[in-house]
Amino acid sequence: MAAPQSISTDVLIVGAGPTGLYGAYYAGFRGLSTVVADVLPALGGQVTALYPEKEIRDVAAIPAIRGRDFVTALAAQAAAFDPAYLLGRQAVRLAYSGGEPVVTLDDGTVVRARAVVLTAGIGTPTPRPLPCGAEWAGVALSYFVTDPAVHTGRDVVIVGGGDSALDWADALGPIARSVTLVHRRAAFRGHAATLARVRAGAAAVHTDTEVVRLDGDLESGTLTKVTLRGRSGDETVVAADHVIAALGFISDLGPLRDWGLDLRGRSVAVDRSMRTNLPRVYAAGDLTEYDGKVRLMSVGFGEVATAMNHVAVDLDPDLTLFPGHSTDVA
Fold first, then answer.
1. For a disulfide at 133, which of 11, 19, 174, 214, Cβ 3.0-4.6 Å?
2. Contacts of 218 by beta carbon, 8 Å cutoff, 6+ apart
3. What are residue 311's phi and psi, to 5 degrees?
4. From CA 305, how far away is CA 32, in angstroms rounded?
5. Structure-model confidence comparison of residues 46 and 270, the more confident one
6. For 15, left (φ over 0), alpha (ψ -120 to 50), or beta?
7. Strand, helix or coil at 239?
């Protein structure tokens, strides 16, 4: 058996979502070599895993951009400094050697870093299951949409009342043969403007209703109908080729809980420099907690830039905290 791989770097970033990717760029801008590890098999974190086709509208100077394209642009920006990626691997253990962090991944890879920056978002997402039809999962039941085109001309049932359910009902309405939106409550939690577009479109909207049965030929992978039950007990059968259960996700910090970090629930406490309570370990993005914290992607970008500037000075005290501007580079 081959010996576990050992890698040395200035900075290990744990989490390859948008904050981590921008951190990889910024570390390079400060002259630091970077390795980025993520438990997911692709760059982009939850943007890639949960809403790659959704339009992101809350990033400065970008009126709207598809999630997949946003991740591609962030990766291209970081590529200028050639970060190394270790994808599909979870950071499981933290130790120290000579005062510097040593992180072991679940495949045995050992990363010897001079500093670690945690950008793992809200942890590893696990979808909340649909109460029925588990046998159809991966066949005609999914928990997010990676390619909307596969639903072209099909009958789609979407279950949920939050932004993801409304976004997919809105996006699939123009291409699917039919869209049925099912929510177990009377009121939706998602954005009012999206809900208005869905209601104005051709989607059939069922509130105070749950999906109670999926029927079809499981052996051939052909779903044909879904049974809905309203609060009154009345049942309705609708045509369905596929069910999308957008019921939210349960997130878990996993092995990070055992590192000795100062945790606030599922978040990591940091100071204004984005330092955690552990030596040479920083955090940025949705993972962090401090007074007045606002969980926005744009906030995460600022936090990881702050972290990397402090990392640079910690690793080389002769450097200044203010890095200058990218426009200063010839």
1. 214
2. 135, 136, 139
3. -60, -45
4. 13
5. 270
6. left
7. strand
Within 173-296, residue ranges assigned H as helices are 192-200
Give, in order, the Cα–Cα distances in Å from 303 to each of 96, 267, 277, 297. Answer: 25, 15, 16, 10
Whether 307 and 283 have beta carbons less than 8 Å apart is answered as yes
d(CA 191, CA 186): 15
Q: How far apart are the first and last CA of the chain?
A: 49
Which region among 182-191, 217-226, 245-254 has the lowest average model confidence (pLDDT)? Answer: 245-254
The residues facing 12 across adjacent strands are: 35, 116
Please report the DSSP string for 80-127 in residue order.
TT--EEEES--EEEEEEETTEEEEEETTS-EEEEEEEEE--TT-EEEE
| CA separation for the pair 291, 64 (Å, rounded) | 30
Question: Which residue type, as a one-letter code, is found at position 291?
Answer: D
Both structure tokens of 137:
């999962």
Distance of alpha carbon 274 from the chain centroid: 20
Tell me the pTM. 0.77
Which residue in 254, 259, 284 sits closest to 269, CA to CA? Answer: 284
Among 190, 189, 185, smallest CA distance to 208 is for: 185
Closest-CA residue to 40 (of 139, 120, 150, 134): 120
pLDDT tens across 48-101, in order? Answer: 877 777 788 889 999 999 888 999 999 999 999 999 999 999 999 999 999 999
